[in-house]
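To: structure desk
From: M.T.
Subject: fold request, one chain
Message: Could you run this one when you get a chance? Sequence is below, nothing fancy, just the single chain.
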Amino acid sequence: MSNLDDRKIIELFYERSEQAIIELSNKYGSVCRKVADNILNNKQDVEECVNDAYLGAWNTIPPQNPNPLISYVCRIVRNIAIKKYHFNTAEKRNSIYDVALDELENCIPSVSSVEDEIDTMEISKHINMFLEILDKENRILFVRRYWYSDSIEDLAKLFCTSKHNVSVRLSRTREKLKKYLSRKGVSL
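Reply: Done. Structure tokens follow.
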């Protein structure tokens, strides 16, 4: 694990020092692999995805100056993993990732046009506002499930509770989200 703080790692990127990638990997490599693995569930694809994310960080820092660095890198990893997932599974299903998306299907409308894409940005803003009103534990639970694609089993271990409890809490949070979006005028 890297003992450098994020600011120093970003300075290395700005200096174009290859040590930046090494430090980034040492500090956040396991988190990046976990995010990619939750989506791809394939060791070779995960490693490829994480390496592509490091390259993505190299190509975007500078000019970007991310704070926090972990969120920035995880977003790159997640986006690359989702693209790889769609490439790999044009007709197949990946249980963990697809199940998480299926759970949200009734809360968030699908995007099929430019107008829908604009609406999606508005929905994203409303979801962020919704997350702000949740208590910390439910917000973390929701984000870990639907952003990082953690399994119900992993979440139960993380929160020291049963899988049933996690499922019920997520279900209630999705219902609250659905009602919240409806009150904000988002048609589902």
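Reply (cont.): The radius of gyration is 18 Å. Let me know if you need anything else for the meeting.
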